[in-house]
């Protein structure tokens, strides 16, 4: 994937800086971190259903992700690799988790 930051819709700042300088800064950072962890868990659950070397590669990439945008970039490959009958529940969970991480709506185009 050769995406530049200009091609990513509504690119937010890193989660750790999202609430800098605002009242309740610590609470904001904690909420952002929890949302990121929830997103990472949703992606991990979806990747766990994949087998073979491609599934293993996606699982490693998800584990190594440090920012929500990295998971946003992996979501298309992850959901495409899932069989159709298993993809829909994971798609909904990932979309809900993404809505919590990114305050502005993303255009989910895989």
Short description:
With 110 residues, this protein is mostly helical. The protein has helices at 25-48, 52-64, 68-81, 84-101.
Please explain how this structure is put together:
The protein has 110 residues and is an all-alpha fold. The protein has one domain (17-101). It has four helices and no strands. The protein is elongated.
List key phrases describing it.
single chain, 110 residues, mainly alpha
Helix content: 55-70%
Spans of at least 5 consecutive residues with low confidence: none
User: How confident is the prediction overall: mean pLDDT?
Assistant: 79
Overall 3D form: elongated
Ends distance: 12 Å
H-E order = HHHH
Can you count the helices?
4
Strand content: under 5%
Structural class: mainly alpha
Tell me the number of structural domains: 1
Give the total of beta strands. Answer: 0
Give a quick account of the main beta sheet: strands, pairing sense, barrel closure: none
* C-alpha Rg (nearest Å): 14 Å
Topology:
Blueprint: H1 25-48, H2 52-64, H3 68-81, H4 84-101
Helix pairs in contact: 1-2, 1-3, 1-4, 2-3, 3-4
């Amino acid at each position: 994937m050769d995406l530049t930051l200009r091609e990513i819709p509504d690119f937010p700042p890193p989660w750790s800086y999202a609430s800098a300088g605002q009242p309740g800064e610590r609470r904001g950072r904690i909420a952002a971190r929890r949302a990121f962890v929830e997103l990472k868990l949703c992606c991990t659950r979806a990747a766990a259903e994949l087998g073979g070397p491609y599934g293993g590669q996606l699982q490693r990439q998800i584990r190594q992700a440090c920012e929500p945008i990295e998971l946003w970039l992996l979501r298309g490959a992850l959901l495409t690799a899932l069989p159709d009958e298993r993809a829909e529940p994971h798609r909904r969970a990932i979309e809900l988790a993404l809505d919590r991480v990114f305050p502005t709506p993303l255009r989910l185009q895989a």
